[in-house]
Amino acid sequence: MMADLRIGVVGTGAIGRTHIERINTRPQGAKVIGCADANIDFCKSVAEKYDIRAYNSGEEMINDPEIDAVICTTIDAFHEQYVMAAIKAEKPVFCEKPLAPKADACKRIVDAEMATGKHLVQVGFMRRYDAGYKQIKAAIDSGEYGAPLLLHCAHRNPSVAVDWTNSSAVENSMIHEIDTLRWLVGENYTSAEVRYGRDSRHTGNDADGKFVHDPQIMILTTESGIRIDVESYVHNCNNYEIRCEVVCEDAVLNLPEPPSITVTAKGAKIRDIDKDWSTRFTDAYNEEIQQWIYTTKEGKVEGATAWDGYVAQITALSASKARDTQTIVPIDIPEKPEFYK
Ligand code: ISE
Predict the structure, then answer these.
(1) What's the half-sphere exposure (Cβ side, CA atoms, 13 Å) at 99?
(2) In sequence order, which residues have a C-beta less than 8 Å from that of residue 295 and are 6 or more positions away?
(3) Are 247 and 152 in contact (CB under 8 A)?
């Protein structure tokens, strides 16, 4: 049996700690043996809790010969720095979404990875591992239902994200649909538009005092003309809801809701739903990390690649431009390099 993959996690915030726990509490061919964080004292407390080593910096950890692979869960602005350090050390790296906030940073990562000649980078778009989305993809790919024509999707959050701004709806939330729907239909987007609904009385100003529109609707068009609408509503009164309906030529496909018992009591039927993404997508995260461990040991990347991360960012930034200008913005995706085909 191949030895455990020795993983180092850079960024010990909530998602970083969840990944440490999910890997170290389940037998799956890997162990997180070290962590690093800009907040060294906090990093030490996390290391102590999980009985792993605390490093003084991400780079020190990445360059340690004891570390075989890296998980990057820092704040978005630092993804490029650590992904680049892992590529330089020629170590596989799993980076939470987005690959980097700016498209040119994603391009630098793509170029650096290609220069090594090795497939090293996977981006954490976990919905590709969700059982329901996988069923929809299998149904589309089977060809049994004809071509997809329209997609109607909703991404409703119970409350605002950290650093909430007018861009968050696209760049923090709907970036998931941007990647997952492109993977589902197997096509790039050619244009984006973002419109507002009537503003909710729950919405307000961001930390800089700028008004944030909520809800927002993003409309994407794909190369073959599939039209996709995605609603983002981030004040959904404590409920987390993800919808995806695919209208095909001969059938309508719907994303299933996660299983949950129905309780019949006191004259009502009640079914609990997830309160946020961390529980809604727990199984998808588990599957994603498990598959990343397997494929990393085989020297492959099977999830979203650095190229997918780059394309997602080009699309998101075009959608943001569409929102800011209230126009339809064309999306120009460069030709996919041979390396990623
Ligand atoms: C969060 O960062 C995520 O990645 C969640 O999946 C998404 O639903 C949420 O809107 C984001 O804030």
Answers:
(1) 28
(2) 301, 302, 303
(3) yes
| Rounded Cα–Cα distance for residues 106 and 139 (Å) | 31
pLDDT reading at 1 higher than 70: no
* Residues 56-81 pLDDT 10s: 999 999 999 999 999 999 999 999 99
Distance 37 CA to ligand 1 centre (A): 22
User: How far, in Å, from the CA of 172 to the mean position of ligand 1?
Assistant: 6
291-309 burial, b if ≥16 CB within 10 A, otherwise e? ebbbbbbeeebebbbbbbb
Interatomic CA distance for residues 145 and 86, integer angstroms:
43
297: which 2 tokens?
């040991």
Closest ligand 1 atom, CA of 232? Answer: 10
Strand order in the sheet with 227-233: 252-254, 241-248, 148-156, 227-233, 216-222, 189-196, 329-330
- Would you give the DSSP letter of residue 13? S
Determine contact, residues 260/272, Cβ cutoff 8 Å: yes
